[in-house]
Amino acid sequence: MGLPVSVDVRAGGELAGHAIDGVFGWLREVDARFSTFKADSEVRRYDRGELAPSELSDDLLEVLSLCDHYERLSGGAFTARLPGRRLDPNAVVKGWAVQRAASLLLAEGLDVFCINAGGDVVTSGEPEPGRAWRVGIRHPERPDAVCAVVESSGGAVATSAEYERGAHILDGRTGRPPAGLLSVTVTADDLVTADSLATAAFAMGTEGIAWVAAQPGCQVLIVDAKRQVHRSPGLRLA
Description:
Elements: E1 5-9, H1 13-34, H2 42-47, H3 58-73, H4 90-107, E2 113-117, E3 120-124, E4 133-138, E5 146-152, E6 154-161, E7 181-188, H5 191-204, H6 207-213, E8 219-224, E9 229-231
Antiparallel strand pairs: 1-2, 2-3, 3-6, 4-5, 6-7, 7-8, 8-9
Helix pairs in contact: 1-4, 4-5, 5-6
């Protein structure tokens, strides 16, 4: 998927090993089917007109529906269809795929785990009695530091920022990189919501601060370009 993925499962023995193999098998399948870089992926074939909408898999239809939802919700700032560019639903795909991976672990009876996909995290249960998972939020300007540590024991944490990839998030309304924010972190019940809202808010620039904070069921930690921090009162910091 073009990013490091780690899976930390507590207990389970051989069952855990088998389930983790299933998780990575699923993620490799997602990469093959949804990659915008592989010419034979379902996404690329659909984008070239080689597949009709009636021929698409249920998974791709679900992902495209989610992309449309967040495009409407963000007023067009979030989009998988920038003019002049390939169809690119990856802003939804990663969160969707990793949340599905978490479901695979839960289906095997494994309910204490942490999946980390390039800094976007899904957690379940408590690694130690009475203690939540601790998720570090990378500092937007210092790769060797964190700017906060969030507690999570059954939900998702996602961060959108430029980091090494530079200006890879574009405002769908203008086609240009947004200005005003250094990083947006969102916590929510699932990674589809957290990741998509974080991406949309970053794409909106400074207007995304109030917009994402008003979304139901999420908490935010935002660093703007003036190095000011905006945090929801209910965000669980370690």
